[in-house]
Amino acid sequence: MQKNKPVLGIDLGSRTTKIVTLSKGKVESFEIFDTNHNSIHKVRKTIRNSKYAKIVATGYGRHLMKAHLSAKVVTEIKACARGAKFLNPDCRLVVDIGGQDSKVIEINPEGSFGQFEMNDRCAAGTGRFLEVMAQVLGYSIEDFWREALAAQSPLPISSMCTVFAESEVISLMTSGEDRRRIALGLHLSIIDRLYPMVSRFEHEGGVMFVGGVAKNRCMAELLEKKLKCKVMIPENPQLVSAIGSALIACES
């Protein structure tokens, strides 16, 4: 590897694509944009003037990066664990909620990942679920969690399937129920679905919440209450896997 050139970490996710430039062990710059049918073109355009030594890619579209940009690929589990440990050496467990999946990853003291749990079979409990429910309630995604936090108490949501939950929410709204209580109930239903995955691991501190959904303050507060411990959230939680990919590029 050419020592003076930075490396790139790319996380081509189902909802967003993240590109991190790492130089001398520090994040030099980053880009985040929506993933679409032509994300390869957008990636090429974004990095065309970059002088980099190597690319490592992760995420749903990592093999596209390998085919079109000759990037080395790593799993999301490995990239996320490496990025989380870099951002906070005390991290022992990562809760990663992305656009279309959720993961809980154990991190060993030396920084490698141990056991993990993953739900990628159902949109319920993911960023996509939150987006759909916010639209049904007539909120922007930010107003959705702000209004949920303002609720006095949650309205229980029994359906976790996105289609059935949408019907249940519409029924509650037509019955005149408070939208804020419905919003809080939806957030709480995701935490209740996530908790069995987290409870399989030791979580006495050292928990980091990452992925785009970590920017949702209601989710973060409910997770802390459920786990009964402080949860770490990076400044840019959606970049963790891209940072991990860049670190792996630097080390290889």
Short recap of the structure:
The protein is of the alpha/beta class.
Can you give a write-up of this model?
The protein has helices spanning 39-47, 62-69, 76-87, 127-137, 141-149, 162-174, 179-198, 217-227, 240-251, and strands at residues 7-12, 16-23, 26-34, 54-58, 72-73, 93-97, 102-107, 113-119, 207-210, 231-232. It is of the alpha/beta class. It has two domains: 7-78 and 240-251, ATPase, nucleotide binding domain (Nucleotidyltransferase, domain 5); 89-233, Nucleotidyltransferase, domain 5, CATH 3.30.420.40. It has a five-stranded mixed β-sheet with strand order 3-2-1-4-5. The chain has a five-stranded mixed β-sheet with strand order 8-7-6-9-10. Helix 3 packs across helix 9 (240-251), helix 4 (127-137) runs parallel beside helix 6 (162-174) and helix 7 packs across helix 8 (217-227). It starts with 6 loop residues before the first strand and ends with a helix. The mean pLDDT is 92.
Share of helix among residues?
A: 40-55%
Q: Rounded to an integer, what's the Rg over CA atoms?
A: 19 Å
- Helix and strand composition category: alpha/beta
Major sheet strand order: 3-2-1-4-5
Strand portion: 15-25%
Topology readout:
Elements: E1 7-12, E2 16-23, E3 26-34, H1 39-47, E4 54-58, H2 62-69, E5 72-73, H3 76-87, E6 93-97, E7 102-107, E8 113-119, H4 127-137, H5 141-149, H6 162-174, H7 179-198, E9 207-210, H8 217-227, E10 231-232, H9 240-251
Parallel strand pairs: 1-4, 4-5, 6-9, 9-10
Antiparallel strand pairs: 1-2, 2-3, 6-7, 7-8
Helix pairs in contact: 3-9, 4-6, 4-7, 5-7, 7-8
What labels describe this entry?
single chain, 252 residues, alpha/beta, Nucleotidyltransferase, domain 5, 5-stranded mixed β-sheet, 9 helices
